[in-house]
Every structure is written in C-alpha cells, then in structure tokens.
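Human:
Take a look at this sequence-structure pair and walk me through the tokens.
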Amino acid sequence: MANRPEVTDLLAAVADGDERARDTLFERVYDELKRIARGQVRRSGEWLSINPTTLLHEAWIKFDRAESRPLAGSAHFYNVLAQAMRQILVDMARSHGAERRGGGFAHTDLTERIEQPDKSADELLAVDAALGRLAAVDPDLAQLVEWHFFGGISFVDIAKARGVTERTVRRHWDLARIFLADAIGASAASA
C-alpha cells in the first residue's frame, strides 16, 4: 500500500498541474486501488461483466476527467475513486436490469434453461438507493459507509481522518448498517 502522506503530497502536486506527479500517483496507488476494485467486483456478483483491472481503469479515467476539486488527503482520494467504481457498477446494474426487462427489444430465448433474476444487480441498486437516503439524512454516516465498505479504508484510518476515536467510528458504522438494513428492507417490502 502506498504511503498515505506521500499520496497526499502527490495529490497536492497534481492539483498544481504537475503531470509527472499524476503518473507517479497512479503508479503508487495502483495496487491499493486494484484491491478496492477486486472487493467491489467480488461483492457485486456473478452477473458482472467487468474485471477489477477494467473497473480500476474506468474509475481512474472518470477521476482524471472530473473537474479538479480539492481533495482532503489520501482517505478522501481513495473514497473518490471508490465512489467512481461504485457508480460504474451501479450504472452497469441499471443497464443489466434494463436488458433483463427486454431493453426495448423483443427478446426470444430458444433454450430450455429458465433464467433466474440476478439478485446481485438488484441488491447493488437497493444498496445504492439506501445509501442515497442515508446521505440525505446523515451525510457523515453515508461517507463512512463509502470509505469503509466501498473504499476499504480501515476504521483506524477513518478515525484519524475524522479526528475521533476508533470506537466512535465503529458505533457510527453500526448506526449506518442499521439504517441501511431498514432502508433496504423497506424498499424490498414496497416492491
């Protein structure tokens, strides 16, 4: 894993327009971002037609093309990339759901196999919707979920970034999980 202070320094250089720093940053964080991408692909399920390397590169392109906005250190950087990966997966899940419903075309399947709905894609969309509801109620809890679950950032690092104890972060994590479980359960019951 790249040294977090080094990543922060490279981010500052990138913000100043240093192209070599951008290349160095990518080299330094590649392994950590690949680990995050592997986790996201693994959690997304078998319906997914993207591999971790492709997800990482698509997220990097999305990050690279985004309007430059100040990043508050390495934790914020990893969160932004994890969010980009999650958004790519959510977009794929939406597209996959549209294809399952015919995608605007008549669908004829000449096999004897009965297709089962892809719960993983639906679950990813439900988590995304629940996370949106959590962000509307408590943006800090939503950010905690993004940092830890999607970004793979440890509770210790989150506590340092927020200036609180690890115990406080874990307590907030428990609250966020309860909220998300309720929100996902409520949306499943109304469907």
About this structure: The chain is about 75% helix and 0% strand.
